[in-house]
Amino acid sequence: MRITTARRIAQVFFFALFAWLCLVATVGTRYWQWRGWPIRWFLELDPLVALGTALTTRSLYPALSWALAVIVLTVLLGRVFCGWICPFGSIHHLVSWLARRSWPLKRRMEANRYRPAQVVKYCILAALLSAAVLPAGHLMLASLQTGLLDPIPLVNRSFNLVVLSIGDLAAGKWSGAGRFYSGAGLIGAVFLAFVLLNLAAPRFYCRFVCPLGALLGVIASAAPWGVGARRTKCTECGVCDLNCAGACNPMGPIRLGECLMCMNCLDDCPTEGPVNYGPRPSPAGEIVSPGMTRRDFVVSVAAGLAVAPLARLGGATAGDWPAGMIRPPGSVAEEEFLARCVKCGECVRVCPTNVLQPAGFSFGLEALWTPVLNNRVGVSGCQSNCIACGRACPTGAIRPLTLDERLGQGEFRSAGPIRIGLACVDRGRCLPWAMERPCIVCEETCPVSPKAIHLEEVEQTARDGAKVRLQRPVVDPGRCIGCGVCEHECPMSGLRAIRVTADNETRDRNHAVLLRNEN
Amino acid sequence: MAACALAVLAAVLACVCIQQSRFDPAVMVAAAASPAAPSPAGLLERWPEGVSPMSGAEAFTQGTLSDKIDGKAELYLSAGFVSLKSQRVSLAGAQGTWMEILVYDMGLPSNAYSVFSSQRRPNAADAGMGDYSYEADNELCLVHGSYYVEVVCSGSSDPARRAAEALARAFIGSTAVAEHANVGAEQALFPTEGLIAGSIALVPSDVFGLDQLRNVFVARYRDGAGELTLFAARRDAPGAAAREAAELRGFFVADCGGKEAPPPPSPPGASIIEMDGAFEAVFSSGPYVAGVHQAPDRASAQRWLGVISRRIAGERP
Amino acid sequence: MNPPAPEPGPLASRREFFRRGLRAGAAIAATGGLGAWLLNRHPPGDFSRVRASDPRRDFSVRTAGPRMAVATGRSRPAMLRAALAAMGGIERYIARGDRVMLKVNAAFATPALLCATTHPELLAELVRLCHSAGAASVVVTDNPINAPESCFELSGIGPAARAAGADLFVPGPGSFRPGTLPGGRLIRDWPVLSEPFAGVTKLIGVAPVKSHDRAGASMTMKNWYGLLGGRRNQFHQDIDGIIVELAMLVKPTLVVLDGTDSMMTNGPTGGSLADLKATNTLIVATDPVAADALGATLLGRSFRDLAYLSRADGLGLGTTDFESLHPARVQAQAS
After folding, report:
1. Which domains occur in chain C, in start order?
2. Among chain A residues, CA nearest to B22
3. What is the value of pTM for the model shown?
4. Is B314 exposed, middle or buried (CB count within 10 Å of its CB: 0-12, 13-18, 19+)?
């Protein structure tokens, strides 16, 4: 079997696996649901996720040990991840091929010549890593933004939140209820833009943007073997450039950091031709350096270092923390959360009630596409006996809780249940408080026992003179866990008459309303 | 080389497939938590022919019973209710006919009999299964040990009735009970002449609307043109029965504005009270307390008092 | 196109391959090693699992025994000297080479004459006396409610400390460590002031007598509130509980309770001279509970009016029966 056939099979296999793992990422026991499918696996394989979080947290989250395997693979064989495994790369590969199938040969060869702009992805990598490299904490110096352009989180959130949701509009059964995701438009637009850029240049994203590719390109310089060209028999026909995915100039000197190991050049080069895969160095020469000038490097690093202070000077992680930003249960405190969240969208996808949403810009720049709750969307607020989001998170931004810890039972009884916020009745909008009309939906639907909402009975004379007995809801902050079911069920469906804010959330002592021991 | 790569792919596929059978804790928690999820085990292991479950079995405790039967829960709760399991089943080939089987675990056979008898429908015919049973229109009710079972059909056609009986028999057959309900002894306390069929009931509490009376067997009798009720109960100790009779008499006189009529010659210690235009009679004999409720006149009260007291005397060892 | 490099000979290429293989091996080893070193087996941000660092500090001088002295007069320095002399002299408590911390009340940026904060004159004299006893260093600190710099400066504490030769420690966010008080309900995984305690061997609390809307009074025991960081205003929901836990948290060498002018109303911030009453008393004691119990009388109350006192007494953290300490009552000469 030709190596390129194996590579194509691998691309199809991993893309299908990726698509399947996205499809099944919904809580349930049937075979098309989560069961035990390793839905986080592609994210765990991603070395940039591991490196980024290792820099910001100074520790390696255990699940991300898979990334070490990919790094070892890259050290030995070069960028096989890019050419054989990466599902985003496979999409680009396919679109690029479709776009240029009918082009004349010369144009295709020209499209695959190395462009100096391919150094941009190294600059992006340098910027992202500098943003993350300084010690974090109250010095506001580090920020994890790799998730914005890291291909696996990018394709994961695009696929899960946009592509599957569009597909689900018809089928309606791939996840719980009909899924809505605020900001899906932007996520989808970014995805579409990168896919369509393949029309401008083959594998545009892989060659010019991908920071993971840049990282693997740097690591690949250690590989003992690589694609190369023997100088004998080379007629310089240029056919190796015809289908070169990485624009790495296999004729030589080959740019090792760009070679995606697609092996097309081996295939296209006539039998007994010079292009081969063998021990390095390639006889035709090799260029190991990414081609970054010192100026490029300094500018990238400076830009990266500026990210964290610029993002944090607004105070969004300090006194001006956004009260409307309710994080999923089990989230760590905000500074650590932002140091771990790669914006992969996995938690948003598995959430069975569709209450988790990718944040927009309203909670600060750093919070873009991180998960927040919106109780108006979805089927019910946050189910109090669900631990799905923490189990879906690949980096520990949301801790994998046990049910006991979530509910404050068993060994966690003294700690009490995990609160994500506090509901407060808006007495100016609540029917029994302000409008003389009975309603106790929030109290009825409050899921904790004893209920966090109790009713105060009052008899009033209504406008028409009739006596009306009203039961008015009052929230007990000692019991409320902020699940948002009340907000979801409130019949005042525009601006709800009972709303949850992130006050009293257990994950941050500074947001507490009550002393912790009041359970 | 290519073969090596394919081998790796196969290994990945194998590992992923093995992994999918080990449920993630989130999935297990969700499956355990969801009561609406169809449980793999229904109410019965094997369903009779033509009967198949429409939904999963539901379970209710003392706290949640009212979620299922609302206000009626009070009756069961005061009679010693433990738990309820119910399931809806559909009947094959019967155009949308479905049934719901409700199995109430009442804790004791007497409790089961009590809720069975106090809800007995007037035109019920004995269905001949379990310890006690009756069939009325679209419903089949029975007592089996400490279980009270109702099979409620969406229609009253013959196939539905047959299916209900089959369902009930399947339940009885598959559920072993430690002790059967047997109220024969108490039923024998009641004279047969004039007894309105099927009216013997064990009322657990609030008998005749009185707090003082609980766990009492009652039976309705035809007396000439009208009806009256006889009641009887066996208490654990003779003193208890006598005390209860005295308490009842005192209650009628002091709290209900009853006028004590001259006591009948027999049984000894009995009393007749006129109250609200009707006559009550109470007496105790050994461990039994019994009497008459709402007799139309003093003579009939006395007459029926004699009937039941003789009956009880005959029962005493 | 670059000029082609000459084909390497078989030996050279094998050497080259070996070298590259070694480099790859080293890269793999480094990756594995770095991964193993960084591997974090325990989940992050485990806020439910309380960290066990015990924040308790005991600076009491047991050999000195429980003592109390009550000085009357108008001059704070004179009263302090007289009271300490009646206690056996400051040498009984401060030894040569001791590093002394003075925990003052610098909660507000109010002028000294309003007596909402520790009086600078009193502080200066105390620093002088510590130095005279041979203290190697004296550090003055508090975690103010208002902005630290202005509190220390406007209250006069900062200038007085510096003039007397003491160090002033202004806490920052990094000065606190999470502590869990054994047996405490409230101080669990809570930031407690720790940086200025480094090397400290003696602790003296210096507080004015003030009434307090929530607690009833703010005296020497409430003074330790300044050791807490974070959003400690929550603890006002259980003010008696937190004061008792603070008494468990720290046992000072001495406390100085300044009742020269007691804030009778509108405490703890006061704001008007009319809030003050000249009670002309200064109390020095080893037992903060006893000091507060006596201080309560200056406010016209009894210790029974302050729930935290009885609770602390009940827990054996001190005694409200201050007479049992046989307090020495002295008159201070104005000087």
Report:
1. 54-331 (3.40.50)
2. A36
3. 0.67
4. exposed
